[in-house]
Structures are given as structure tokens and as C-alpha cells.
Specification:
Hydrolase, Rossmann fold, six-stranded parallel sheet, alpha/beta
Length: 186
Amino acid sequence: MALTALDPKTALIVVDLQRGIVAYPVAHPIGEVVSRARSLADAFRARGLPVALVNVAGSAPGRTEVPRNNQTFSAGWTDLIPELDQQPGDIVVTKRTWGAFASTDLEARLRARGVTQVVIVGVATATGVESTARQAYELGFNVTLAVDAMTDMRLEAHDHSIAKVFPRLGETGATQEIIDLLAKTA
């Protein structure tokens, strides 16, 4: 669905833009994704809207057919990248699952601020971003996805999420469209 509106209390959720993950090879230039995420964060902060910075450390418990890599993360692997310009008022969440809402206090922290809509960006489109979007949708948030401010390790997974999954969860648009809508909402 094309981008039509932002609620007055919309939050930005930045998924897994952390040192260890941005070092992976991805389908789209990570510098452009980071730059767009930063532009959105700056625009949200300028309007006093919440910015949630999410990183991942570990993985959820449970059996899977894919062998788990139980490596110890190198120093700094989970650190949010400095380009995000983390501010004292930002919500910072560490997750251990794909989605940012499962087993974290993100929902409670957003609800406490009156948030009714979320804009989601980050890495990886088909895992962290999509899982966060699905959870937000299931929790009753209006969902918007900035499709030019995300990427994946696999181009086909990225494209599938954008074309087939995201339109069922909410609205999609480009970073500049979202910033323009923010200006009209304020």
C-alpha cells in the first residue's frame, strides 16, 4: 500500500544497525541504508517523536533444523553504529529474537509515549525488519516501512518482503516521502 498518512504519535524503529551486522555483505550499499536511517532519525528527533534503536545479541532458544552458530560475539559486535547519533532520549532495546517486540519492553515503552504508528528501517529486510513489522502489526500499531532504508544479505529475500509481505502489513514508501509526510503532520 502506498504511503498516505502518519499518525501524530509515530515512532521510528531502527533494526540491527550495529557494528557486527553492517559488516556483512548485503544486497544494497549499507552506507546508503545507514544515511537514510540517520535522516529519518534526525527528522523524528527534530519533531520530538520517539526513535527506538534496536540491536541483537544472541538468538532465541529452541530447536531448529539449521545448526546454530554459538559463537561468542567479538568486542563491539552488538554496538550500535555511531552514524545513528544515539541521543539520551532514544529508546534502546537489545533483542535475542528476530523481531524487536518479542521478549523486550519495546511495546510498553512505545505505548507509554502514546505511539500508535511505527516506521521501520534496518537490516535484514526478511528477518529483523519483517519480524518487527509483523509483531507491530499484530500488536495493533499502524506500520510503515521505509523500503529504501533497509537491505538484506539476500536480494531475493529483500525483494520478496517488499513486494509480497509488507503490503499486507502496512504502508511502504521512500525515506524522503516519510520525511515530507512528517513535515505535514507536525
